[in-house]
Amino acid sequence: MALPEPEPSRTVGSFLVERQPETLTVTLQHQASFTWNALGFFAFMASSVLILGLLATIKSAQWGVSSAADFFAPKKNHFGFLWLASTLGLLIGFPLYLRHTYKPTITFLFNARNGTIFRNNVLVTRFRRVESIRVHEHGDPAGRYLYALSLLHTDGHEEAIYEVYEERDALTLANEIATYVKRPVTFK
Hints:
The structure is a single chain. By secondary structure, the chain is an alpha+beta fold. The protein folds into 2 domains: 10-29 and 104-187, PH-domain like; 36-102. It has helices at residues 36-63, 68-71, 78-102, 167-181, and strands spanning 10-12, 15-19, 23-28, 107-111, 116-119, 122-126, 130-139, 145-153, 157-164, 185-187. Strand 8 and strand 9 (157-164) form a beta hairpin. Helix 1 (36-63) runs antiparallel to helix 3 (78-102). The chain crosses the membrane at residues 34-58, 79-98.
């Protein structure tokens, strides 16, 4: 079986398409970014933690709290406990937010060597079970046309790939996948 020639990666709509001799990788590029809103939220959270720390220090000075255990005890210095909890929440939550924001949401891997198709490293089907690549046109609530791209396999099962407003992007991506798995594109 002759494998397709490697091509440089290219962008089709929101997808990055990378064609290698044995694999075709279709990755949805992340749409989210670290915006000014996220930076403002982080600044607000950091300043709130700072204010709680100052209140905890003032409260401990007023009541004569001497040990670290008393400083963070919820019954003796509730500001100290809130400061500790919010600091831990910020230190854990913000990196998780960044990880969630910057990771690609969808990755399809078409492996010609094994004849398998994966979505986010989970096996979807094999090439021999693929019936067609389907582009389905339907309307959205605003009355605009929306094009859904999906993979029909195993006697009618449908694996949604993407929905897009641009017909050209849907057909280009469908043709790219169909050429690789050697199945037809159906337009409904």
